[in-house]
Structure formats: structure tokens, C-alpha cells
Write a structure and sequence with these properties.
Radius of gyration: 20 Å
Structural class: alpha+beta
Shape: globular
Strand order of the largest sheet: 2-1-3-7-6
């Protein structure tokens, strides 16, 4: 049975204990219909808050729209996943909800340490003229795939580095040897890829500010979902009734 459930090695006692605790906690949280509704509402409030911070105007930073690269870091595991989209407003708002993206099913947004978003078209003016011409020829969609591939190769996120199989297990992916559209076209824009990686690393290493869950710069932003748990109302918990004991 352990093999079927994909458990760790027999000596991974702490892992197995944590797994049992997780199941037990969920059983408590979903103990009846009223608690199920409360759980659904709390999780959606949190996911909605994260999606809003990823997409809406923030200070001098405009709303996130159009073509972007994004990556999700988990507390402990670090970078988990790198993706791209041409519709940032829709994709990033849904990312923590999980209705059209698998990530939140595997790594709940409540344990996301940060989400990095790079609006790569804003980097084009700094790229060589020859590469700007290449981007114009290949189009935004293909360029986004090419930059996504280059970033995945540079950072090796584990959830991009293997794929599910119909047999119920996982197959490793050699990203460097991929023949996807992104991989085929990535060599055409090496300097833009380097600019993108530099912008990525800047946001991937910045610290969460006190009293806030967002840092924005000229080409993107980073949202800190984990920091929301420390901010009033940020964790999605309903407000306490008046007179409730602390």
C-alpha cells in the first residue's frame, strides 16, 4: 500500500508522521457540512487575495496584463514551477485558485513563499536590435515559450522537470534536450534570455517588506503569499465576532 500511495522510504518517519497529521487535520476541518463551507470560503478568500495582488495595480505598478513569465516558490522546497502566459490577468488570477491550472492542486497557495512575475516585453528595449527583430518575426507567443524554456533550463524547477504517465508514475524530462517550440526558438534570443534571468533573480531574492506582501519594480513584481498569514485578514480567516476572547 505504501508504494501505491507514493510514500517515502521506510525510514522517513517524520515524513510519514507529517502525512498522517495532514490527513487528520483535513478530517477535522471538514468534519461537517458547515465546516466544509467555512473551509471552502476561507481557501477561496486567500486564493482570491493572492490573485488580486498578482494582477491588480499596486502603488506605482500598473495592473499586470499581457505576456509574462511567472514562477512559484514554496516555503522549504524553493522554486517549484515556472510558466508563461499571454493573458496574465486571467492566468495569474486563476493560478492560486487552481480551476484551470494544476499547480495549486499539488502545492497549496497557503504554503507559497513567493510568486515572481516578469513582464518580459518591457525588457525588449534593452535587447540588441537583431533580437528585437527576431521577436517580431517569431511573435509574442513563441517568444514567451522560448523565454520560458530558457528560464526552466537555467533554474530546473522540479514540477517542470518530470511529467505524469498513464501508468500512475512519473517520467523525468530532460529540459536541455527538449524539442518543444520554446526549445527550438530559444537560441534566437540569448541576450533577451539573459536580461530575463537577471530580472528574475532580482525578484527571486528580494526580501519581503515589513507590513506588505508585494514588491514591484520596473519589469515585474513578487508577491509573498506566506507573508499574508502575518497581516490582518490576510490568511482568509473570517473576522472575529465582537467580544470574542483572544
Amino acid at each position: 500500500m505504501d508504494d501505491l500511495l507514493g510514500h517515502g522510504p521506510a525510514d522517513g518517519r517524520a515524513y510519514e508522521d507529517a502525512y498522517r497529521t495532514w490527513r487528520s487535520s483535513l478530517t477535522t476541518l471538514l468534519a461537517d457540512a458547515a465546516l466544509l463551507a467555512q473551509w471552502q470560503e476561507r481557501r477561496y478568500r486567500f486564493a482570491h487575495r493572492v490573485g488580486s495582488l498578482l494582477t491588480e495595480e499596486y502603488g506605482d505598478s500598473p495592473a499586470t496584463a499581457g505576456a509574462v513569465l511567472y514562477g512559484v516558490f514554496a516555503s522549504g522546497a524553493g522554486l517549484c514551477y515556472v510558466g508563461q502566459t499571454q493573458e496574465a490577468g486571467r492566468r495569474l488570477r486563476d493560478l492560486p485558485v487552481g480551476e484551470s491550472h494544476h499547480l495549486a492542486n499539488t502545492v497549496p497557495p497557503e504554503v507559497w513563499e513567493r510568486v515572481v512575475v516578469i513582464r518580459w516585453p518591457l525588457l525588449l528595449p534593452a535587447a540588441p536590435a537583431a533580437e528585437r527583430s527576431e521577436v517580431e518575426k517569431m511573435g509574442s507567443e513563441v517568444c514567451g515559450l522560448a523565454l520560458e524554456h530558457a528560464l526552466q533550463v537555467a533554474t530546473a524547477p522540479p514540477l517542470n522537470s518530470r511529467r505524469r504517465r498513464t501508468s500512475g508514475d512519473w517520467q523525468p524530462r530532460n529540459l536541455a534536450q527538449s524539442r518543444s517550440r520554446g526549445a527550438v526558438h530559444a537560441p534566437r534570443i540569448p541576450d533577451l534570455a539573459r536580461l530575463t534571468l537577471a530580472a528574475w533573480r532580482a525578484l527571486a531574492t528580494v526580501r519581503a517588506p515589513e507590513g506588505s506582501a508585494v514588491v514591484a519594480d520596473g519589469v515585474g513584481r513578487v508577491v509573498f503569499p506566506a507573508a499574508l498569514h502575518e497581516l490582518p485578514g490576510g490568511s482568509g480567516a473570517p473576522p472575529r465576532a465582537a467580544g470574542h476572547a483572544s
